[in-house]
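Table S7 (text form). Paired inputs.
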Amino acid sequence: MAAPDSQLFKSKTLFWLIALGLAATIGMAVTSVLLDDAKYSVTSGTNSFSKSAIGHGAIADLLEKNGFEILKSQANTDSKLLGSKTSLFLLEPQAIKSIEDHINTLTYYSPTLLVLPKRRGVPNPGKPGWILTSNLLNLKTPEKIANYVTSETEIIRPDENIANWQNTYDLPGAPKINDIQLIKNDKLDPVIWNEHGILLGKYTAEDKDYGDWPIWILSDPDLLQNHGLGDGWNLDFTLQMVSDVTASADTIVIDEIIHGFTMDPSLARAMFSQPFIYATIASLLAVLVFMFATTRRFGAALRQEKSIRDSKAIFLNNTARIFRLAEREREALIKLIDDGGLQVAETLRAPDNIGQASLIDWLDARSHARGCSLSYSTIRIRAQNVPVDDPDQRGRIVIIAQQFHEWRHTILSGSVTNSEPASEEEKK
């Protein structure tokens, strides 16, 4: 006996569900690989998202290729600094009061590289992410930021060319920087310097409120900005400086809150941002497909269930069908009982490939378990034993047909009423 179709969806519905899933996966993969951050890919400022001349995108990418984990933090930076294997980069912060408090909090947690600002770029409206030109900041701006972490700082820009560079890295070359910007502060240990001032200095706070971690202050950002990183010995000095700051750390946290880039973690926002927007759309469409699939109009055709309650009209039609088969009433009744028994067995989930004798025994067991007054075999034997030459043959056939009808109604609508074990399907 063929098992009833238990497939939840039609093939077409399954095809669309699978297609939506694949489309979402491919969309997320393509977006993640080929597209930059949608919000910050066109910034032209002095931040790690920027690919402009005064940006720091190049050094961030380079360090990531060199094995560092780069976190461009836009929220909860302090929580990312917990642990001994992180370093903090503050690349050209803004000179505002809230940033001062923010910097003083972050420098408590990790070794820090503070890069002072020097220029402000003018964005190019015709080329997003580019600048038309850049202007030098007033010296008071980098001086104010340096004083966030130490005091009595002076920033200078010597007019003369500087040749007598010194460094603790034993590098034979010199930084190549135009309009050099230097810092003067007796609290700094010089790392790269000349007779005019310090390009890179190390500051260790005596005040324990600042923590025990040193702070390296780079006075001129041109050393590692996109436009200057590849000039002369700049890259060599930059890599040595990074090695000093990071020591054994393998994670660099670049704080972007200092540039106004803030993004509080939000699952709802992430769902509608690239690349997750594709998965969100696909999920919504899949829900719609599922809803349509569960309706009569759009879903798979409902399986034709055998009615538990046969109407009186059906019984009368079956009896009339027997009478229309002239002189073959008994054979027709037996065939009706056999066909009806198969339908009952299918409805009650009889075992597959069961033989006729075993099927009769199975139906008898179910009849007894469900409280039928007559067994299936009894009704079938009575139909077989109706005499062919009996003048009251039709009356007997009608009675047996009615008995079969009542048996069928009882076995389909009744429940297990004795200790006869139910079938596996009934247990389910």
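Next pair, protein 2 of 2.
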Amino acid sequence: MSIEEEELVYIIEDSGIGNPKHELSFIFDSYFRASNSNILNSHGIGLAICKEIITQNNGKIYTDSNDMGSRFYFTMPIQH
């Protein structure tokens, strides 16, 4: 976590299979599952819920990914 320009910035990183670059624009859509996902009990709603909570609190969420894992960033405004 860091503070940048009146925002808290969080970075969450994993070392999983990553997400295909051409699918990153859909990763926060409800019911989206990446084409390389083999988890049968996934419903594709977790990241959509995260995005909804963060945007309702005036934050932002985004990601980058490669075959070595994913990195998710989200920001929340500092309220005075």
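The longest strand covers residues 69-77.
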